[in-house]
Every structure is written in C-alpha cells, then in structure tokens.
Amino acid sequence: MSLTRNQPFDMRGWLLGLSALIIALDRITKHWVSGHIEEGSAITVIPHVFRISHVLNGGAAFSMFTDSPHPERTRWMLTAFSVLAAIVVLVVLLRVGRRITMTSLSMALVLGGAIGNVWDRVRTGTVIDFLEVHIIHYHWPDFNVADSAIVVGGILLLLDSLRSKEEPNA
C-alpha cells in the first residue's frame, strides 16, 4: 500500500519503539546500579540535592504496601495489576497510535514504564529504585527510569485532557 498525502504514516511502530527504549534504559540503569552500588548505599552527585542510591522496593509507588503483613500476596497483586494495566495501555496505544499525539506519546511512556517495573517484580519480587532527590528538607521517595516514564506519561495525559478541544464551526 502506498502512502498519499491524505494517508498519515502509521506511528504505532515508532511509539512501541519508544516503549522498548524506556524498557531498555530502565534495565540498563538498574543493572548498572546493582553492579556498582551496594544495596542501601549511594553515590552523591549533587550534595544535599541528588544521589544515585540502591534501594529495593517491595511495595508500589512511594513504597506503599512495603510493610504489608503478606508480602508475597502483595507482590503478586501488584504484579497482576501492573500486567493488566500494561495490557490496557497497549490496547489504547494500538488504537490511538496512528499519529503521534500527547495521548499516544503518554501511552507509550506508561507502557514502557509499567513493563520495566513488572519485569523486576516477576524476576526478583522487588523493584530497584535508585534516583534519590532532596528538596530543601524534603526527601522525595527514591524512583527509577520506569517510574519517571510513568509519571511523565501521566502528566502528558492530564495536560492533553485539560487542553481545550476545537469547537466545530456553527
């Protein structure tokens, strides 16, 4: 099939490639941290602001559910939720991914991030977090590349939903 000016180029492959890039960056950075920083330790990058740490997170975002009385059940519930979310996001991405929009871009970022973290959960039962930020006296919970992609994707989706849609001519 040839493309004409009226037929937009299908961008789903590029968007899935972005998801794969997020997964690869997440795996590479987590592997590097595991090999170079002892668990519980950190390398200071900017004193009192930013460190590269090595933290194992058995819970969800912001370490929620870490102190669960049933850690194995929590692990598999979080894994099942993440897999289900990734499937839903993939379906949405395949539907809206013909063009690059804020929605399709956000779905690609969220998909890559979700798969990056579920990979850890399935393999080891925990997620490696390593980006540690301090803002004045506040310590932001440690996070990783996958978490960053999910948050940026969520923000893009929110911004897209707040944009005013073009009104049809009356």
TrEMBL record:
<keyword id="KW-0472">Membrane</keyword>
<dbReference type="Pfam" id="PF01252">
    <property type="entry name" value="Peptidase_A8"/>
</dbReference>
<keyword id="KW-0812">Transmembrane</keyword>
<feature type="active site">
    <location>
        <position position="129"/>
    </location>
</feature>
<keyword id="KW-1133">Transmembrane helix</keyword>
<feature type="transmembrane region" description="Helical">
    <location>
        <begin position="76"/>
        <end position="94"/>
    </location>
</feature>
<dbReference type="GO" id="GO:0006508">
    <property type="term" value="P:proteolysis"/>
</dbReference>
<keyword id="KW-0645">Protease</keyword>
<dbReference type="GO" id="GO:0004190">
    <property type="term" value="F:aspartic-type endopeptidase activity"/>
</dbReference>
<keyword id="KW-1003">Cell membrane</keyword>
<dbReference type="InterPro" id="IPR001872">
    <property type="entry name" value="Peptidase_A8"/>
</dbReference>
<keyword id="KW-0064">Aspartyl protease</keyword>
<dbReference type="GO" id="GO:0005886">
    <property type="term" value="C:plasma membrane"/>
</dbReference>
<feature type="active site">
    <location>
        <position position="147"/>
    </location>
</feature>
<comment type="pathway">
    <text>Protein modification; lipoprotein biosynthesis (signal peptide cleavage).</text>
</comment>
<comment type="function">
    <text>This protein specifically catalyzes the removal of signal peptides from prolipoproteins.</text>
</comment>
<protein>
    <recommendedName>
        <fullName>Lipoprotein signal peptidase</fullName>
        <ecNumber>3.4.23.36</ecNumber>
    </recommendedName>
</protein>
<comment type="similarity">
    <text>Belongs to the peptidase A8 family.</text>
</comment>
<keyword id="KW-0378">Hydrolase</keyword>
